[in-house]
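[audit] Reproducing an earlier prediction to check determinism. Same input, same settings, fresh worker. If the tokens differ from the archived copy the diff job will pick it up downstream; this log only records the rerun itself.
[audit] input (280 residues):
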Amino acid sequence: MGTFSQTTARRDQELRVGIGGFGAIGQAVAKRVDEGIPGLSLVAVSARDVAKAGRNMADFKQPVPVVTLGELAGLADVVVECAPAAVFAEVADPAVGAGRIFVPSSVGCLLSRMDLIDQAEKTGARIVIPTGALIALDTVRAAAEGAIRSVTMVTRKPPGGLAGAPYLIENNINIEGLSEALKVFDGTARGGAKGFPANLNVAAALSLAGIGPDETRLQIWADPGVTRNTHTIEVDADSARFTMTIENIPSEENPRTGKITPLSVIAALRGLVSTLKVGT
């Protein structure tokens, strides 16, 4: 009887996880939670193609129901958004409204939905932004406790990774057949996140950690000479001056994002329940 009670208590303390979006990122995150992260349990996923989602869960230890995006908040303590930016609100609004822990991968969408932060204060929700494809985000957050004078970010991606971005279409910028690097954007992190919603979640996260989306400067280059998504960040603060560069390997399923993105979401989830949490 004692053993049963202890086991029941541990299960009661587990955070139930729902995954909104079951593409490359969502599947990777769901599979890792299904494989076992102490303190977490997968309870539902959301996908447009229910039959395909079922097939993709064929090797899961415990397949879970496939529900609509809006239903996740009623089933899970933690709602992870891994969906296209166009349906961000369908995941975010119910999760924050229900007071859940909301983990967005489409961080750029938050820049136009800062009202969610005010809503979270009212409902008791938490918005936890994964580090994503950016290194030293903890250092930027620490520097922001003092005074940051400037933050700049230069992103270089293979042209195929930027194809179809709204900013390129609206400004008639052709990146096909490039023989050398072409600067396609020079502005603020807010403008970059809006114009390249599938590409620049890292810029949004950087801006939220530091001096904000309107003060963070951003350049984007379509560069046929690179094979990895490369981000170089320079920060000048009263506590430190630093430069950091990361080269992320693009995902085979979606070259607009890096392989490290789902791993970052998994690390963020693990940090919610870990006895030892490294980093701020």
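[audit] rerun output stored. Observation attached for the diff report: Residues 2-131+260-273 form a domain with the Rossmann fold fold (CATH 3.40.50.720).
[audit] end
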